[in-house]
């Protein structure tokens, strides 16, 4: 399959966790991948060794986002899939102590996806099955008081999802995925894990495959736009 006929995907935050595993899965399916990362290359070297195009950009920097967009435009006239996955996840005290971190919440979760979608609209509309997937959170519907800025920013991304689903139809579909306890962070201790799982009806840590399967489902079902799918083991039922 030549580059001209390969489906093309842009994934933000592709260096680790979900973004990394999704990029690997799509590379195995024959996609041409633009793998965005910020400061940590983590899995980017591996993705590049598999054929991905690593693209560095600080999503809190307006000019850096525009440079990312320009790089994509220079190398492809078509974009089949965009996954806005990059995230900043910290509790209230960190945000309260650092105004730049407060701004970053909205720059990464709202401003950058807005720019990527609007500025790459032509590339998306060139595809026969263009899909944007925005990774929001189950807490956009029932916010946590420990992560007020994060929840507000993710709610903004959810609203963008609905607005763009209206505006870009019928050429581009826009949907969201709301993850729950799919993969705990390294700093989460057993007490935290057990507490979360006790409040999750399916009682397990989901792993990343259910998220990847949901992206595939949204891609392969051409009659879904403006929707959110919870991938959370039922966790949102108990929020």
Automatic annotation (TrEMBL):
CDD domains: PR_SDR_c (cd05357)
Keywords tagged on the record: Oxidoreductase
InterPro entries xref list: NAD(P)-bd_dom_sf (IPR036291), Sc_DH/Rdtase_CS (IPR020904), SDR_fam (IPR002347)
UniProt xrefs under Pfam families: adh_short (PF00106)
Protein name: Dihydromonapterin reductase
Domain of life: Bacteria
Gene Ontology molecular functions: oxidoreductase activity
EC numbers for this chain: 1.5.1.-
Gene from which this protein is expressed: folM
Family: Belongs to the short-chain dehydrogenases/reductases (SDR) family.
Lineage: Bacteria, Pseudomonadati, Pseudomonadota, Gammaproteobacteria, Alteromonadales
């Amino acid at each position: 399959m030549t580059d001209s006929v390969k489906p093309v995907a842009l994934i933000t935050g592709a260096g680790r966790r979900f973004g990394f595993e999704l990029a690997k899965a799509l590379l195995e399916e024959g996609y041409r991948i633009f793998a965005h990362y910020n400061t940590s290359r983590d899995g980017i070297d591996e993705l590049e060794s598999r054929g991905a195009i690593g693209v560095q950009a600080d999503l809190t920097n307006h000019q850096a986002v525009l440079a990312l967009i320009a790089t994509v435009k220079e190398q492809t006239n078509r974009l089949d899939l965009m996954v806005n996955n990059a995230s900043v996840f910290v509790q209230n005290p960190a945000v309260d102590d650092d105004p730049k971190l407060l701004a970053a919440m909205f720059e990464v979760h709202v401003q950058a996806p807005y720019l990527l979608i609007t500025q790459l609209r032509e590339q998306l509309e060139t595809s026969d099955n263009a899909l944007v997937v925005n990774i929001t959170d189950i807490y956009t519907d029932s916010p946590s008081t420990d992560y007020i800025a994060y929840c507000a920013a993710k709610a903004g991304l959810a609203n963008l999802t609905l607005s763009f689903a209206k505006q870009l139809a019928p050429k581009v579909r826009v949907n969201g995925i709301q993850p729950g306890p799919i993969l705990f962070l390294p700093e989460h201790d057993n007490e935290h894990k057990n507490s979360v799982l006790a409040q999750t009806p399916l009682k397990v840590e989901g792993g990343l495959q259910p998220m990847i399967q949901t992206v595939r489902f949204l891609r392969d079902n051409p009659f879904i736009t403006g929707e959110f799918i919870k991938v959370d083991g039922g966790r949102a039922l108990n929020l």
